[in-house]
Amino acid sequence: MAQINWITSFEEGLAKSKAEEKLVFMDFFSPG
Amino acid sequence: MDAVAYIDPAVTQFVNETFVPVRLPAADQVFGPRYKVKWTPTLLLLDAEGNEQYRTLGFYPPEELIPSLLLGMGKAKFNLPDRPAACDCFAKVLTEYPKSSLAPEAVYLSGVSSFIETHNVANLIGIYDRLDADYPDSPWLIRADPYRLLK
Fold first, then answer.
1. ipTM score here?
2. Are A30 and B25 an interchain contact pair (Cβ–Cβ within 8 Å)?
3. Options 2.60.40, 1.25.40, 2.60.120, 3.30.70; which CATH number does B5-148 get?
């Protein structure tokens, strides 16, 4: 089953956002 | 979201292809306060500088999550400002998800974006007419009521 390729580092996400010229989709979730 | 929306194949494909998905606990001590996270789930669209472009709260079924994110993308494009790209996002909500609860807002924002781009009041009148015809129970029709007077 395909999954969302979540990144768990904010900084890594922003760097990827810049490199790929995409918006960041940020999910603040409640574990459990 | 994990049990329903995030395992939906259409959502998975849309999110992976369209965005950089980042996930943090709402209790994260740095980014929770920075983005004033008080509810879960809190879903944001951020630009590459980390500036918030769109925020929505609460759970979405798959068929509502994608139009919500399209609406957010449109708002982010509008803010650049890249209004033609914004209109493309809003149009996608209307063509692909016309029954979504987000569709009336897309009608409104699409018409306003087009008006700002063209200065043609027909775009504003068109907002009222479309909402009146297709989404008469939407609160967005109330917001569009002044445009009725432009006829």
1. 0.96
2. yes
3. 1.25.40
